[in-house]
## 1
Amino acid sequence: MQNGDHVRTDNGHSFSRPGLVLPTPSLQNQIHELAKTLPPPRKQNTACDACRSRKVKCNRLPGQEKCQHCLSKNYPCTHYVQQATSEKKRGAAARRPRNISTSSSSSPVSASTPPWFKAAFGPWNSGRLQSYGGINMQTTTPTLLHHLFAPPESDSTFFFKSRSPGYATWGEMASKLEDEAFRAEFALDLVEVYFQIVHTRLPLLNPLQFRARLNLQATQQRPTITKQDEPLHPALIATVLAWGAKFSEHPLLVSDRDRNGGQSQLAKALIDRTRELAESLKVHRIPNPNHVVISLLIEPLQCQDPRNDNGFHGFWLNSGIRNLLGLQINHKSVMADIKDPEARGTMIFAWWMACLADAFSSFYYRRKPMLDDDDYDIDFYTVDPNAHEATDPTAPSPREQLEFLGYYQAAHALARISRTIARRLWMPSTDQDGIPLDAILSYISDLSKWRDAHLSKVGVPPNLEANWDFVSAVSACASDAQYHVTWVALFFAMDEFGIRDDAFTPSSINQVETAKRKIMEEALQASLRIAALAGVLTSNGYLKLDPAVMHVSCINAGNLLARLGRPEVFQCIKALEQYSYAYEETKEHAREINREYDLTLQKGPHNFHEMASAVRQPSPRSLHSEAMSVDAITNGNGKHHGNTYMSI
């Protein structure tokens, strides 16, 4: 393992603050495990009619026909309301397919799946699926590695016909990939890097099962004995390896980066080959739990610049959402029917990851969200203290479950605000006429309420303990920045579209200018906050290990600070330069922001349109805004235990 000396993800350190808190490193590392212990969504209330009307617990002992209340009062213990509800649900169940398997078996469509579903999709590893250069669901892991690590000149056909000097493009050590034993050792290193760095942020896999099922033995067939021995999906293996190559410091990749200006050409090739392999195996087309996970992991793996042909365009995120909808994970009743806690835990986390990513990315990149508020009836599950198994020492406590649920409830609340704004910005009428004033006032109110309710619980706390580790730092800073960048993105949206004032009265015109100044003030304060958080992470080298969580915040905050000529912009620039270790495109973002800052120093604040009046006439608060520096958080000594916190 080559990168073990630069990241700690499970050392047990945490920081404390009042109320619900961000998951500690150990909890964050075990979100997948925690999700399995959450009770399924509540099914139909089975209380009798008398207890239901009195809104009390209906307690019927085994073997008795009446509940305790009806026995004591000599009431008839009837269940007319329950029967009516059951008949209604049975009618709904008949109108949609049920019991689509969420097993990780090679045939995910269960025997009870309706014939129309099998006809439309069929088993995901059926013979009619095209193989890609010889790779199919029966391909052994060593053979897959043989193809994935082929020399770069083979990219035109993905697979090679002969080993040749083409390896020189990847550095001096790349020729060792000709050896099968070296390929296996290299692959294991990439897998461990994935679980140390990426899995802590996107816990969609079971590390123990993945390692056990990797099966690097070169057998002719991939036998299926038990669930844990079932072969892994080839595109899933490729995705994990591509992630590992982004962050690994294996000598082969170090040599590759040294040869290619700090960027790994092998890592880029693995991303391209992973995407092409997933497409060939119909990951984007066939609803299957494995395909959900692969899709959601491929999206942030890619270039995050939407201007790039291979950049973020939402395709794989949308594919993951379509797969989730195809499996009907958006139905509480379907989620409750998943009996396997491992499968249910994975689908719970996958759903919320997709739901949040859809909302935030739609706002950031001006796209129409795939999901509406009424597209799902599953909510965050109510924790039942009695559900905790005292005999299981590894099961999270009700307190830990509340922390987990509080964190994601806050994220979901912010996602709903972002989704609302994204839909407004998508409307052609907004492009033509501007954003309605009442909508702007509503967004200001919603964001302010969110801050009061959630920021102190999920953002960077006022007092940090020593030894604040990688997971704690990135998790808290990213959650904090997620809120603040919303103000910055809203500022840029208003600058582009303007505010529509239908009244045209002196009072309404004054409201428009007041709203502009408010957004300007909040956006500036938010940008300073993000710059400081980015500075903390950069000073510790954490952003070179971040799987595309903070980059949007750094870019938006950097753009605003550069246009205003604020020197704090250099914290964002340095952050993006460090980000380029894994995401090459951020280096160009850093250059663009730097050029914008230099131009502002020459011409003064410029490049503003509809918000120009708020920039020219800032409020007293924004005139006297104090930059939030790294020292403000770290207390000036570079360690994460300062006690200064900027009041938002």
Note: Strands lie at 435-436, 499-500.
## 2
Amino acid sequence: MSGDAPIHLILVDGSGFIFRAFHALPPMTAPDGTPVNAVFGFTNMLARLLRDHVGTHLAVIFDAGRVTFRNGIYDQYKAHRPEPPEELRPQFALVRDATAAFGVPGIEEAGWEADDLIAAYARLVTDAGGRCTVVSSDKDLMQLIRPGVEMLDPIRQKPIGPKEVEAKFGVTPDKVIDVQALIGDSVDNVPGVPGIGPKTASALIAEYGSLDAILDGAPAMKPSKRRDSLIEHAERARLSRVLVTLREDAPCPLGLEDLICRDPDEVKLGEWLQSMGFRSLLHRMGMKESAAAVGVASSAPAPAAAVAAAPTPSPDRAPYGPYETVRTAGALETWVAEARTAGFCAIDTETDGLDPLRAGLVGISLAVAPGRACYIPLAHTAEPPPPQLLPDLLLEPAPQDDAPDPVGPQLETGLALAILGPLLADASVLKIFQNAKFDLLVLTRAGAPQPAPVDDTMLISYAQFAGRHGQGMDELSRLYLGHTPIPYDEVTGTGRNRVPFARVDVARATAYAAEDADVTLRLWLSLRPTLRIHHALALYEELERPLVAVLADMERAGIAIDVVELRRMSADFATRMAQMEAEIQALAGRSFNVGSPKQLGEILFDEMGLPGGKRMKSGAWGTDSSVLQDLADQGHDLPGRILAWRQLAKLKSTYADALVKQADPDTARVHTSFQMAITSTGRLSSNEPNLQNIPIRTEEGGRIRRAFVAAPGHVLLSADYSQIELRLLAHVADIPALREAFALGQDIHARTASEVFGIPIEGMDPLTRRRAKAINFGIIYGISAFGLGRQLGIPPGEARAYIDAYFARYPGIRAYMETVKQEAKDQGYVTTPFGRRCWVPGIADRSAVRRAYAERQAINAPLQGGAADIIKRAMVRLPHALASAGLDGRLLLQVHDELLFEVRAGQQDALSALVKQVMESAASLSVPLVVETGTGANWADAH
């Protein structure tokens, strides 16, 4: 080609295409049995691209791994993405082989996403006066579209330009980032602003012009949930903007001269196509087969060895549907009889909300065998869905007099539950749920008896694969059944067109709801047998399954709050924030919006000239907490005050204001929801409200805890494991000095300081003890010399000397850490002392940064997971212990290593002794478990 020809660079989103091809094409295998459907699709696309869309330059861009710099900014980024299907994993390397066989450069860079590299190359070529075509349909890449940069959908072979972007997002490409920051992304776990969907986001952008303008203008908006959400979650939106912004400053490992299109080596390409069995492509490209041809790609099943490596297949090939709609008592009784005969059934509920303590029961589905399921509509309304959701053709409604009943007969809820009640309570019939706690709360609230016995497919999977992939039904179905269930959005619509489930056409509701029960049953048949294979049966049977009922009771109970005190606190926080704002503005030398990162950046870096500022893609200075903390550590007053103001603002919005709104108006009690299958270590988390993040050691955190109060005539009792993770470290690493210290009840941090620094415990300097404490807890989390130095305010070199001295005194801890890291590399997971597998993605990553992060996770997981196992053991034993003792007390909350009870006044001493005994005997370690208890009228006094 002429050297003067304008550059036209074609960039193929290789990582994005392989997933799309895998799900779009039927199973295929190479002659050696390797799955190759995605490879075939990719190869076909690349051949067509070279034939029909010839540019001057070409490259295929890949993701180098799952962990990137964004995980350092937000550790939950893409945290819940599942592991790729087993049939797809070998195809990643083969797609790279295909790229090389065509002679096309394949580019990837550790720590960066393929999208960032595409953004960087697009900028590089347009700055050189050329143009770029991105071969992808990924919405995240649409922010790049501008003069000189376009996209091409590789499946539909359709260009994607500004019109297509505006049709999707409601804004021009240059505003896509702001829209994405507002709406977030559930797939990538980008938080966004709750309640803000695409239409609302685009309307706000149209009105205000930018995300910063929206957030700055939110306080002046008309009072509404949307306004409150924008104010409360402003930092989430700013964080989301950072996460979704593609980095044009990403490295470009190859220069443009290395990407010039070249004809492939026909011999090399032909041999590779033959080795894969892609004869049709070979002939289409005008190549002849050689005697080395080894076979033909086939859609036949893979050989036994390949099947053995894949996830457990669906136990039955029965089709998914059609399913029956149950409208009469007689029909329901027939299904109940079938369930009794089978000895098990899967059950799922449909509701008109996501809060099981407030949602109404709309319908129930049952499954008694694969493909044999039904739906029992109970509260569907006669109001039809809007025209956009009518199936197939948009038909004009018939005249009212002639219109058939759009819902049809339904069983009255009380009658349906009366028929189902004996089945739910029948000890000889196993009831199977996916996320059983939700359904149990819904059913019992509607008047059904407590279902028992119960199995939970979510927890069956979680007991085996915590951290390996998410535990949602749709994800499990795709992974282990090879089936994609009907999406909820397809049934109810999205955005403004979404309708409550009660208004969904019953035929559609049956297809959706009965399929959920069918999938749940098939998952149970597939996953339940593997509990024993993965040595997770005891963990599931003794901890996870019995904990469902315990947590359901805790959620029903809730905890009382002092609404008056919270409102007083909110007003006080507002006053203090106003005072802090005045002081901040005085330090700045002028008035400005303290909550505006843009204005703050101008103050700090343009006007005050502080060092270390970095501009973001938008041109504004970055002012997140890490930037401000660095400046505060350097002795600058203003950044530290901003951090304090932000902390107070967060406490005000997240707790002082939000708790009042979340409380039951009749009882003034808040009912948090415990999440059982989110963390990789087995720890519980909670939301609505999240009680795990209340500051423990600050004055403001104490004030918030004081607003959690006991009911009249009762007191709160707190029981907290003392230094449980350090005790587990002493146990699993078998450290004699630490074991002795715990056995003697010594101050473990003073003992550590004495051992490491060679000084007596008596008369020890508090600063020395503090340093030993920081090392003790830091070691659990794999702290670096830089991190310890920053925490203690000392140079990294001095901190490294402390860590080295620690390991010299306790070589068994270093040996334990190395053993655990190797275990994670060999198996992909580590194990708690009680047998829980904690999967560690990224442990074998080629990136040293990502691998080091995974190694720190591996070190901590057995300790944090072991602590979770111990407190769960106590929780499942406590209800029976309380009942046997005849005490009028109940468990309300679990937060980290603490349990909180409400007990009738006068019984707190007896309850304290009982709880302490149960918790301290929950596990037998080589060191004693110690539980500290306290009581009070509120949580702060009890803690």
Note: The first helix runs from residue 14 to 24.
## 3
Amino acid sequence: MASLYLHRFSFAFALVTLLSFSLPFPLSAHSSFDFTEATVDSIQAAFRDRSLTSVQLVQHYLSEIRSLNPRLRAVIEVNPDALTQAARADLDRERNPYNRNRLLGIPVLLKDNIGTADKLNTTAGSFALLGSVVSRDSGVVRRLRKTGAVILGKASMSEWAFFRSETAPDGWCARCGQGINPYVRTANPCGSSSGSSIAAAANLATVTLGTETDGSIICPAASNSVVGIKPTVGLTSRSMVIPISPRQDTIGPICRTVTDAVYVLDAIAGYDIYDAKATKEAAKYIPQGGYVKFLKLEGLKGKRIGILREGFFNFSKNSRKGKVFEQQFSLMRKKGAMLTDNLQIANVSVILDYNQSGEEIALLAEFKVELNKYLSQLTSSPVRSLADVISFNEKHKKEEKIKKYGQQVFLLSESTNGITSIVRNAISNMAQLSSKGIETLMREKQLDAIVTPDATVSSILGVGGYPGISVPAGYDETGVPFGICFGGLKGYEPRLIEIAYAFEQATMVRKPPRFKSLLL
């Protein structure tokens, strides 16, 4: 693995000398720009005043990855073409100085289940897919490339989106090992978009992308003190993204600020012919002019927000975490929000139970069907079915990186027989639970959002395909981050963005990690 990294970095840095001869302005290896916690806006301002180039920015992130990734294990691969793409963005900007595309020249890290038709692998963190070739860019990557964004590389993830083993910890994958929380190395980085969240928190890229089926954006965002947006299912294309469920899978941004996350959401949201049914249905929710206009400092004013207390805020109001949330609730009220406390969703205990709700039955069946379909579309691949993946892992189980954890979930999925009447009944049950639960509550109480800590609401949002935004909320006694999540009904992104942005700007909780614990 070390040789792979050395090869890719050597190749990338060797390009700098070659590219410098074709640039219409001098290329320096250094810049006076402050890269720490750099935002899209600050970077674009530096591009415009020529204190920074995209090539320099990519150089910086490659250097940071080389320095920190051996300890964080957030990045699986860097893109050998990243500097070429950065140089192209610099040239485009020079030729058209009035180009105001926000992501032009901005480096993006992608979760390793998001397909790219380039020199990068797309493996879901598994050796079983190493060397496979996708037939085209994923829908979200195709949109990113149109903006001029630089595909920096692939972020680590809980292998197979945490859908392989019942015993593997969050953030572990065979190809990269155990992802490390950059704030407290013994803390859970959460998953499955662990690498994307760790990388965003540790300033290894400007912005990142993750995916969520049930908690995989919201949880790692909260655990690593970054912002994560889980969009309404279908708002972003799932085409050429390694799947779990067509009902629940969604792709969203993980960034250091709400603003940057919204810029990325604007870039990736929209119709895709390769995910036509879902994206056509969700396209009606996309506001004319996009989502940036909902970044309002007064976004909390007049918002009706329901606090789901019982079963979610499972800690004392007098604990450090409890006190932080109570202070933040008070602040939201001062900012004009109308908070209704102690609300309950009907049958909430059933919805949150993976077995009782029907979620387990549905996901196990859907995964086999959808994965086999995905593998059949690959231009080339060492495996062509879930059965092949299971056989691969069994064949290589004596190898340390493969054998460490089992594949119980795979075996359960392989034993399913398609979308049977039992599966359809489970899906119908989840739809009814959602309709009678969160939908009824929010409409009866006329709520703009519900609020919960961390990722405790993930199953409610997951089974219904609803959106949520996680924002940094604080750090516990040991320095471990925690988040606050604002959730809503399908298409509620504008309201949630207003709330999340106003909350973020009023609290300004996030601070970069110091990495002290990583040296121990």
Note: Residues 421-444 form the longest helix (24 residues).
